[in-house]
Amino acid sequence: MTRVIHTGDTHVGYQQYHSPVRRQDFLDAFGAVVDDAVDDDVDAVVHAGDLFHDRRPELPDLMGTIAVLRRLADAGIPFLAVVGNHESTRGGQWLDLFERLGLATRLGDAPTVVGDVAFYGLDHVPVSRRDELEYAFEPHDADYAALVAHGLFEPFAHADWDTETVLDESDVDFDAMLLGDNHTPDSAEVAGTWVTYPGSTERASASEREGRGYNLVAFDGAAVGGDDRVEIRRRALDTREFVFVSVDLDAGEGEARVRERVREHDLADAVVLVEITGEGDPVTPAAVEAFADAEGALVARVTDRRTVETDEEFDVSFADPEAAVRERIEEMGLSAAGLDVDDAVRSDSIADANVRETVKSRVEERLDDPAAFAAADGGAGEGDAAGDDTTDDGSTGDERPTGDDATDDGTERSDPSTPADGQVSMEDYL
């Protein structure tokens, strides 16, 4: 029997809500996975991509990750991984550096055998390049085989990758596909193969309400009753508390009612997310956030979902100007990429703090498709519809960073090899 921890989407370096404490939380969650691996003496830790949140991690995040991987190496437990879209660079990968340091193995088309399982890897591949894939893997003589991959695979939410095509065209018969990119944990059986996501190890967005964790995967037919061959168990992680407060205001109710509802929860060191609906009086989000901070919250964010109408003589709501803007955008004939950016900037469902990351991800998704940056002759109707790849919370299902030559403010570097302040580049090492 071979037992491995299957994890992914650790997003080390993500300073969520601009909070240094939240940034440390992401590294701590990855460290907790490794601590469990050492305590349980598993045969390997398998990481399905997006170890880092950005392709240019800052030095403390890089050093912290190396320290975590050294704990695993000191315990004699291999770290097997693939490259996700967030951390992918155009040259060498951070995973290559860790491999040179003896801290990791980058999985590919040749088998890496641990126990009685042959592990293969498939890094994230943009949609525009997938038709070129041949899924050609070298043979193995192990009892089991598993493919570790990063992408949004069917039959799970926001899928853009056909799982059956991968399984049918592969040279190897896989017993399991251990996946990353979808932050929601789930498992399914496709064409006789178990396909599973462990979910993210920390909440990377407000839509990730369920607890975080990872998978413990055992390859042993006898342990699961014979023919199934693979057993997948979900394990929880103790991560930062998120408090979700929904307030539906009746007529005449306002900020006092919102505070009352917030006060019902234990806010100590928690991320507090308040959503306001209903017909009550106007509420100032900043005042509620300050109240939650005073009650001990680490971070507080308030979203007012209500649509407020103007005086009846105008017969217009605040939604009407948005329609006028959309009409003007259509007349401009923006490219498909331009429409993606416009949608991210003006979307009501994307928090201001997340707009930059969402724009970066959408531009990166289009980089390998030059046609996406060509102006549409007939307006938006002739290009791709903006928002096709968005999730329920308005973010893309698989966020992508911008190119290596872009600075944080979107301008181009005069020397692409020069790192941003506090950041390190693969060119410095490889």
Automatic annotation (TrEMBL):
Cited SUPFAM superfamilies: Metallo-dependent phosphatases (SSF56300)
EC code(s) of this entry: 3.1.-.-
One Pfam family here: Metallophos
Binding site residues for Mn(2+) 2: 50, 85, 150
Domain spans labelled Calcineurin-like phosphoesterase: 3-115
Cofactor binding summary note: Binds 2 manganese ions per subunit.
Positions annotated to bind Mn(2+) 1: 9, 11, 50, 183
Biased composition, class Basic and acidic residues, residue ranges: 358-369
Region (Disordered): 358-430
Entries under InterPro entries matching the protein: Calcineurin-like_PHP, DNA_Repair-Maintenance_Comp, Metallo-depent_PP-like, Mre11_archaea-type, Mre11_Halo
Cofactor: Mn(2+)
GO molecular function terms noted in the UniProt entry: 3'-5' exonuclease activity; DNA end binding; endonuclease activity; manganese ion binding; Y-form DNA binding
Biased amino acid composition, Acidic residues: 385-396
Free-text activity regulation comment from the record: Nuclease activity is regulated by Rad50.
Alphabetized UniProt keyword annotations: DNA damage, DNA repair, Endonuclease, Exonuclease, Hydrolase, Manganese, Metal-binding, Nuclease
NCBIfam families named among the record's database cross-references: Mre11_Halo (NF041030)
UniProt function note: Part of the Rad50/Mre11 complex, which is involved in the early steps of DNA double-strand break (DSB) repair. Mre11 binds to DSB ends and has both double-stranded 3'-5' exonuclease activity and single-stranded endonuclease activity.
Subunit record text: Homodimer. Forms a heterotetramer composed of two Mre11 subunits and two Rad50 subunits.
Family: Belongs to the MRE11/RAD32 family.
Protein name in UniProt: DNA double-strand break repair protein Mre11
